[in-house]
Amino acid sequence: MEQPPQNEQEEGGGGGGKNSSGSNSNYLCRQTSTRWTPTTEQIRILKELYYNNGVRSPTADQIQRISARLRQYGKIEGKNVFYWFQNHKARERQKKRFTNTTTTVASDQIHPNICYNKYPIINTTTPPGVASSTPSSSSCSNSSTPAMVAVGQIMGSYGYGSVNMEKSFRDCTISAGCNGGGGTVGHNFWVGGGAAGGGVNPYPQSYPFLEYQRRINAMEIDDE
Amino acid sequence: MEQPPQNEQEEGGGGGGKNSSGSNSNYLCRQTSTRWTPTTEQIRILKELYYNNGVRSPTADQIQRISARLRQYGKIEGKNVFYWFQNHKARERQKKRFTNTTTTVASDQIHPNICYNKYPIINTTTPPGVASSTPSSSSCSNSSTPAMVAVGQIMGSYGYGSVNMEKSFRDCTISAGCNGGGGTVGHNFWVGGGAAGGGVNPYPQSYPFLEYQRRINAMEIDDE
DNA sequence: ACGATATGAATGAATG
DNA sequence: CATTCATTCATATCGT
Lengths: 224, 224
What we know:
The structure is a homodimer.
Chain A: H1 40-52, H2 60-70, H3 78-99, H4 152-157, H5 208-213
Helix pairs in contact in A: 2-3
The first copy, chain A, binds a DNA duplex through helix 3.
């Protein structure tokens, strides 16, 4: 999996000053350690939320709380949390695509997503005091998988270390040209740009914005 | 996507020089960019419109003109302009959401008060046309900058600047301070994260947050 | 030191 | 307008 982040940066209650961030002791006026370097505690919590609770895309409200909570362990901002979830989700998905690619095709979904849900939040006979409201995110449907990973504290021991993982692999091929009037590749309203090769716009309009586009236009804007 | 991802972008009439897209450096054999990579000039103009003129959601005809104008500096389509404004606006608001939503519902909409200042990031000198060797500047590979573009032209010529000036005339005081010819055009949303180095807990906290992860799902209703 | 990988950050493009 | 996905850039970190 990812390499276990072993060094602790500023953490502990109340956080600390600037993160030392290792790198170079001396930080010039350059980019003061630009990016956020999560502490192990922060990561642990984030992962718990992600895997244990199925939090995938926390709402703004949740992000605030999460970041507020995590701030105890080090400097953190809302955007960090936001990005973390975004990235984590994206990468997980990305990796997964490579692991079981090539197949797909007919069978829609062979394996359910890895969704480590120790407790199916959404169910479980409604624990006392908590209304079983459906989580807003709920990207993972699975719920009663016995093969749960003992996340929780254990995970904190070695950071992360579960789930399978593939090396990042980029393909330089693909680019199945979807052009020239083949199948519908989706919606491409904005075709008329002109600069591009295809100058035909099959769709008169499909977007609120385009409704206006067809009008006015008093002076012809030179196009390409 | 649709249009043939030509690597070369046609010049729109002698205005600017070769548009060496900011991102450049096709990391890989990525000949199919598919997505619009705004040039520094384009970004600059867009920001100019956004901040200095309060353009937030340009109308279709405006979009057409803007894109037509920007085409001088590189390939661009109407949708790019449209999306740009949409995104820029959305992210600006999003940033605000993450930093203070505090369900307390009080005064959060009053003064956006955008404060573009984060770390002592460089950006001080802003020599004309010279990128200040900032490690993070990625959009500045232009060695032969065309020249200072007369941004004002756009509005003056077409005179749509005042049209929607009325619309949003709130926080357009700041001038984005985009350096004139390159360098980081990035804007720092997400600023007021607070706790940066302070280690103070700005929020009264005590949410039913991590105590029981599942709680987070009930936050919606449960709230604080 | 480098190169590879992991991952934070940014943003274009879409969708609801 | 809000949210989300995908792709890419930038950089911290680790391995050799």
